[in-house]
Structure formats: structure tokens, C-alpha cells
Amino acid sequence: MVLNNIEKLLEKYENGETTLKEEQQLKNYFSQETVAPHLEMYKPMFNYFLVNKQEQFTKDVPLKTKRIFNYKWISVAAVAVLMLGFYFNNSIITDDCNELGTYCEPEQALEEVTKQLAMISNHFNKGTQAVGYLKEVDKGTAALGYLNEVENTTSIIFKK
Amino acid sequence: MTQTEFLNIVMPFKDKVFRLAKRLLVSTEEAEDATQEVLLKLWNNKAKIKEYKNVEAFSMTMTKNFCFDKLKSKQAQNLKIVHSNYEEKNTPLQKQVELNDSVNWVGKIIEELPEQQRMIIQLRDIEEYDLDEIAKMLDMKNTAVRVALSRARKTIREKLTNTHNYGIK
Question: Is A40 at the interface with chain B, CB within 8 A?
């Protein structure tokens, strides 16, 4: 390489006008063992660039695949829980009925039901007797009906 | 997108991200953390990766912003990033040391440059990006990048000439 050429390139280089190719030429020139003495100060610069280019990143990057929680599975779980619930519920009822206060024998159940119904009707009758007084109230309201007539007359008076 | 697909996209430029982060944050550990953070962010947004026109340029911009945030938060805490990148020198030759020394000196000069110029030097002279690409990454105008680049290069050369001529540091 002609020295003249290198000097020209250096000038262009300092003005930031060199292309990448020309810079590569400079780098090649200054990576030689011997360079022109008056250009020696450029040598460490270009060497520095070359050395620095070789530095590498050696640390590992912990790449974790982000787990996106799938909400669909919640519905599946809910359905499963419900199914289990129904299953156990049924089995409990069929297994022993006494625990839930029901009767296993139909005759016994009928007896109990009639007893209960008789009791209910007794109490119901008591209730109807008490309600009998309501008739008196009806009479009262009939008497109040006269008040309407009074109102009619007063309204006629006020219109006039 | 699987891990291997992602790694195939990321592998070619992860070192560049790391080096840019190091250029800005100086400390290797901080730069490693920053790179990790940037890559993780990319991974978490992997669904959108195909929408990006240029994943590499996008990541570089992301790195830049992340590092600036980091620097800002450090400044706010009134903490200075202490860097101690110890290196073992297994070739204690006089010549080697001398060369290393002047090469390290370049690093120090670059460290003194303003952040923007540092980034541009990193992206252009070390990573060898196109000026247009750099302009896009840094959200600057092409000409502004060129001016900053020229300034940075001149500063480096001036300081190097001084050291070279007088041997002062």
C-alpha cells in the first residue's frame, strides 16, 4: 500500500468521510508489525478497535418460558368438583336414610305423615276461629260507608 | 417462538450489545447485567419480534436507553460506578506491556469522551456499522453522527499524538 494513500485515507477518516471498506484498509495497514514512524500514534488506536471487537459476552441468559395460566382449566376443575359433589350426595342419601331424618319403611312414613297432618289441621282450625272476629271489622267498614255520603255533600257545597 | 429460534436471532449481535453497554457503563459486570436485561426484555416480548424491522438496530437502541437509565439512576444515587476490570497478563514481555499500555491508553481516552461520541466510536469503529444505521439507532441525523464521529476521532488522535510525542499521561 502506498503511504500517500494511507495518509489521504487518514485525513478522510478524521473527517468521518471514509467508507467501511476504507476503514478496513486502514485497520489492515495498522495491524502490520511496522508502520511509518510518523504514523505510529495511530497504531494503538486501530489495535484497540480490533482487540475490542473480540470481546464477547459469556454470561448465560436465563431464558424462562413464561407460563400463562390457562383459565379454561378452572372451569374444568369446577365441573369436576360439582360432579364429585353430586356423586357423593346421592350415595349418602341412598346409604343411610335415618341420619337425614327420613324413614326407610313406607308404612312408618305414612303413619308419621298422617300424624303430622292431623296436628297441622288442628292448629289451622284454631287459627280460623281467631279470624272470625274479622267479620265485626266488616260491619264497621259498612258503617263507615256513610261517611262517603257526607263527603259527597261537602264536595257539592264547596263547588258552589 | 422457541428458545433455539430466539437464540439464533440474538446470537449474532449479543456481543455487540455487551460491548456497547461496556463502553457506556465501563464496568464489565454492569455491562453483563445490562446485556442480560436487554436480552431478557427481548425474550419477554418475543411475540412482537417479527414485527421489528431490524431486531439488531432495535436492540442497540434498547441497550443505549437502558444504559442511560442506569447511568442516570446511579447519578441520582450519587454513586459512581467503580470499575475494576482486572486482567491477568500472562505474557510479561516488555514489548507486549508497552503495546498493551498504549492500547489501554486509547481505552482511557475514549472513556473521557462525551457519551454520545463514545457510542458513535463504538458503533462505527469497533462494530463497523453503517452511518445510516447508527443514525437510526441513536435517533440522530446522519450529518450529526458524522460530525460527532469526526470530533471524536480528532480528539483521540490529538491526545494520542501528545502521549506519543511527550510520553506524558
Answer: yes
